[in-house]
C-alpha cells in the first residue's frame, strides 16, 4: 500500500520526534478536514504523537473534524481513551468549546452533498445534537470571547440556511398540495357520480359487479389518502418553521404527505381503469391490457420523480445518524490508547 510505504519512509528518514511531527502535521490536519479516515489511521498507526498536531488556530484533528463535519474522524474520539474527557471541556483561543465549533456553518462542499436546504439544516442540527452528548452540561450555555453561547452562534451562522430551508420546504408542500387538491376533487366527483349511473332507487347499476367493488375501494382509498396529503401539506405551509422543527417535525410531515400523495395517485388510476372497463369495454378482458399500459406510464413517472426525495428524507431522518459504527477499523486503537494512558 502506497500510503503505508510513504509513512514508513518518513519514519525511517526522520528518526527525530520534531522532524516527524513537521512532516506528518500538514497531511494529518488536511486529512481531518476532508474526512480521509484511512490517511489519519495510517499516520497514527505509524506515529501516534501526530494526534497532538494543531493548526494555526490551535485546533487538533478532532476539533477540525467537528468544524468540517468529518464524521469518521470525529468518531475516533471513542478510541482515544482518557483523552476523550479532555474534549468535554476543551476550548480554543476564542474560548469556543466543542459545541461552539459544531455550531459553525458546515463548509459548502459538505452541504452540497445533501439534497435541499431543509435536509442540510436537519443534518446540521443532528451534528450539533451529537456533539452536545460529548460536552459537559455546564458548557452547553457557556459563552466565548464574543459572549455567544453555542446556541446563539448556531442561530447566527445558520440564519440564511433556515430561511432557505423554509422556502424549500414550503415550495415543495405548495406544489404537492395543488396535486393533492386536484386528486381529491376528481375522486370525490367520481364517488358521487358512479360509473354506469344509478337505478331509480338510487342503487348503482354495476353494484354487484366485482370490478365496481374494485372501483369503490380504490376511489375511497384515493380520496382519503389525497385528503390526508392535502391536510399535511397545509400544516407545513402554516408551520412556523423554527430551527428545531427541521430536526424531526417538518421532515416527518413531508414524508407522510408525499407517501399519501403517491398512494392516492396510484389508487386514482386503478379507479379510472375500473371505470373504463365497466363503461366502455363491455367486460372484454383483453381490453385491460391496453388500458393498463396507458395508465402505467404517468404513475411510474410520478413515482420515479418522487421516490428519490422520499428516500433522502427517510435516510436523513431515521437512518443517517452518527455513531461509533462509522469507524471502519480499530488497528490504530492500541497504539493511540497506549500513548494517552
What overall form do the CA principal axes indicate?
elongated
What does the largest sheet look like?
none
Query: Mind telling me the CATH class of the largest domain?
Result: Mainly Alpha
Mean of residue pLDDT? 84
Proportion in β-strands = under 5%
Radius of gyration (Å): 29 Å
Count structural domains. 2
CATH architecture of the largest domain: Up-down Bundle
Based on DSSP secondary structure assignment, what is the total number of beta strands?
Answer: 0
State the separation between the terminal residues, measured CA to CA: 30 Å
By CATH, the topology of the largest domain is Butyryl-CoA Dehydrogenase, subunit A, domain 3
Structural class: mainly alpha
Uncertain regions spanning at least 5 consecutive residues = 325-331
Order of helices and strands: HHHHHHHHHHHHHHH
What percent of residues adopt helix (DSSP H or I)? 55-70%
Number of H- or I-type helical stretches: 15
Please explain how this structure is put together.
- The chain has helices at 2-13, 17-33, 37-46, 61-67, 71-74, 83-89, 98-103, 108-111, 116-132, 150-157, 159-192, 210-237, 249-280, 288-319, 333-340.
- It has 341 residues and is an all-alpha fold.
- Mean pLDDT is 84; it is low at 325-331.
